[in-house]
């Protein structure tokens, strides 16, 4: 904090210049500043500006007790001078005189409420005195004061305009909490997550009551899948004096990611009990109820959402996406009316619009109007495809590079290394290929715990790829060959450490059902050689069409174009065939059509491959009450049925691009 130096009343120009010279030397040569201040005091005993400079010099010279004595005396007559109060507060803090520091800062912030630094120092002192809630309020006042900081405002404008260098220049050499948080956001927007996390964490450490910084920190931790830390900070926000309902929603989102659907449900229900007119909360409650298997209650929650907001496309899609629910003619009329009302604001409401197209496609398909259903599916996919990044050529080249690396000689030369744990069971493949069914069957076994689609293997693979992208290695193959046995063991152990938070039992095995992990089957074997890998596969036309008409919340950018999804399926089959050649028998393949035709036989073969004894509960998988988050959550809560196998044939006339993209895979997919 800076404040004009108090000028001696009646002092001459020479005295004033001497004071200014002493003040200027405080940081570079505090001993000289002290000597000069003492010389002035000998000529003008008790002169307040000289007393202040002397105290400031003493503190810088490591003599805070001597400084405190002078400042205490000075403050008796000069407490109207902010610089005196600021120095007294800092000195009292250094000497452990917390109550004195608090008193000085309370007086200072009353005089200068728009200066954020005083509030943040007051917050720290209040917490030191055990007055945590008062400290929290002081931090919040500091954040409010910082909204008037011109440099922060200009930096925020530059950031929004993506003038990142200019924004950072405005924040240079600042380490106050608002500047740290803003700098963290700038780094995040530039894609530097490591720096962003470090800066925002510093802001929270410095001002624990800076709610907006902690809120942002939780969101960053969610993006990096550090769920344990995200939960700690989300729970901390529940104690905020502001009582912001948004913090309860944030905690619920963390609980959902952790698989605690019941905990999230409790939060949503409490929020709705306080205020029912919250369509987003109704929708979130519907998601939790669906995952918990409470289908009737989920339907009611989604209908409450669209009642409060008829144009809420995602809530309509959530209803349509309940595979065992059929939308009626009145629903179709309501959705068509919602679409028409959104047309004037189409550019801003694209998410609602494409969700409504997917929903109408499902409703009209159920009604048997296949041409109209296809039109809506096609429009929904067209809109969504324009909003996602997917380069089919680049993806195919990336997988081809992995295919060339993961060969039989490569693995033969790397028999040592890798974490020997046999805990993980990876279920891989494409979405809508029956992986949730396989998961439900296996998780009904007494030795297997079902979790969810875990992003941790993808994160490890992404970090390895980044070493190539940053130039540490010439290519992916060189990076793989550089991994020593100890490196591979450490990576396997890291995977187990990262996923441990999702394990709620002491069962020896757990399932990771992220379909996209097929891309990393070779890496899985390299770092977890005893983990099981199951490839859940379905007829390419049925699988790809089902994926194309399914809107996925995240992670499946290839599904919104028939050619893209056909190419993706073909790339997947070719890569898994290469893995079979390199590691014969390593991957167990489950064909959905065979599982439907001979469930007992396929289940027995599956368990035998897992090395697990047969258990009858695996054949009664639909009675398993575990939470299921995928699009098939309702389907796996009833016995196996066959009515979904050939739905694509109703649309065969429009699926030429898909057939062309699949090429020879159409006849070789089941090998």
Automatic annotation (TrEMBL):
SUPFAM superfamilies: P-loop containing nucleoside triphosphate hydrolases, TPR-like. TPR repeats lie at residues 279-312. The keyword Transport does not apply. Keywords: TPR repeat, Transferase. PANTHER family: PROTEIN-TYROSINE SULFOTRANSFERASE (PTHR12788:SF10), PROTEIN-TYROSINE SULFOTRANSFERASE 2 (PTHR12788). This is Sulfotransferase.
